[in-house]
Every structure is written in structure tokens, then in C-alpha cells.
Design a protein that fits this description.
Largest sheet: 2 strands, antiparallel
Number of strands: 4
CATH topology: Four Helix Bundle (Hemerythrin (Met), subunit A)
Strand order of the largest sheet: 1-2
Radius of gyration: 17 Å
CATH architecture: Up-down Bundle
Helix content: 40-55%
CATH superfamily: Nucleotidyltransferases  domain 2
Strand content: 5-15%
Order of helices and strands: EHHEHHHEEHHHH
Structural class: mainly alpha
Distance between the termini: 44 Å
Number of helices: 9
Length: about 190
């Protein structure tokens, strides 16, 4: 059973900051190849979850302590009808199972692709389509766009797009591809490089 966690409104930034990191990791891992797809899905799921929790904290000063994207969408419905759209729910369901599969593989308790018959056992399987990264980008752009980032906070993704000077995410990045390219490569929601 999930419980309501009350925290100071300013704590939304903790969720936002962590969500941005998870989103960047999901995009980076996506481009590493299909062998890592479960991890791209895992970080994508975590990013969307944290963006919704940041929105809840900013608007209500609380969040639900569970990982269900569809469940969180129901809680975010008072903030926007976006969370009731069939396309939104379909996108959230795409990433829903990666929370378990990406973490536990074949030992996952929630595994929508599991087959368990006397003739065949399939566990820990996942499907990753090239379109999933675009689904993630659209979810992030829309949900993150509902979060008000006042000038007293650093909007990390905006700062990365603008060049990233003085931002620790940029300064400490050691990837072979520039972090700005990771964010914008083939990204129809935030712009492309």
C-alpha cells in the first residue's frame, strides 16, 4: 500500500534534479544499443515517475510513495487533462513494466511479457522499439513543462541546451558524446542537433 508523503514544497526541486539525471541517462543508454534497452527503459520510467512526483510536490506539497506511472497519472489528473489522454496513458504504460524488468530481470514480479507454461517459460523479456525514446521525450517535455521553475532554481535541461556553462552536470560529464548532444540528438520534443 502506498502512502502519502508530505514534504516542503521546495523539495520539488530534488525530484526535478534527479528526474533530469535519469532522463539524460535513459537517452544516453538508448544510443548504446539494444543490449542495454532494459536499462534505458528503467531510467526512462524513473525519470517520468520523478517528474510526476515533482509536479505533485510543487502543487500539493506531497507525493505518493509508489512507482506506478499510471497510478501517479491518476493523482496528477487535477493538474491537467493531459494525464487522462489515451496517448498519455499508453506512453506511461510503455514504461510501467521497466521499473521491475530493468531492476530485477527474470526475477521481476510484474512482467507483462512473462510466459509460464509447461512447454515454455519466458521471464525478464522486454521489448524496446526505436520509437520508445520519442515516447519518453514527449512525456518528459509535457510533464516537465507543467513544473514551474522559477529563476531561483537552475533549469538544468534549459541550461544544457543553452551551452551549460557552470552547470555541474556539464562540467563533470565524462561521456564520449557531449551531454548537449545526448539531450538533443533525434529529440523532436526539445529540438535536435
Amino acid at each position: 500500500m502506498s502512502s502519502l508523503k508530505r514534504i516542503p514544497e521546495a523539495s520539488f526541486f530534488i525530484f526535478l534534479s534527479e528526474a533530469d539525471k535519469d532522463y539524460l541517462l535513459a537517452r544516453h543508454i538508448n544510443f548504446l544499443g539494444s543490449s542495454f534497452a532494459s536499462r534505458a527503459g528503467f531510467f526512462g520510467q524513473a525519470a517520468v515517475e520523478k517528474y510526476m512526483k515533482a509536479l505533485m510536490v510543487q502543487r500539493e506539497g506531497s507525493y505518493l510513495a509508489h512507482h506506478s506511472l499510471v497510478g501517479l497519472a491518476k493523482e496528477c489528473l487535477p493538474f491537467s487533462e493531459y494525464f487522462a489522454l489515451a496517448e498519455t496513458l499508453e506512453g506511461l504504460e510503455t514504461f510501467e513494466h521497466f521499473e521491475q524488468i530493468g531492476r530485477y530481470g527474470a526475477a521481476a514480479k510484474k512482467d507483462k511479457n512473462r510466459v509460464d507454461t509447461p512447454e515454455l517459460q519466458i521471464r525478464g523479456a522486454y521489448v524496446w522499439a526505436d520509437t520508445y525514446i520519442h515516447v519518453l521525450d514527449a512525456l518528459v517535455a509535457e510533464i516537465r513543462g507543467m513544473i514551474v521553475i522559477e529563476p531561483t532554481y537552475v533549469d538544468a535541461l534549459r541550461k544544457i541546451i543553452d551551452g551549460g556553462e557552470g552547470l555541474s552536470l556539464v562540467d563533470l560529464w565524462r561521456g564520449t558524446e557531449q551531454i548537449r548532444d545526448v539531450l538533443l540528438r533525434d529529440n523532436y520534443s526539445f529540438g535536435q542537433v
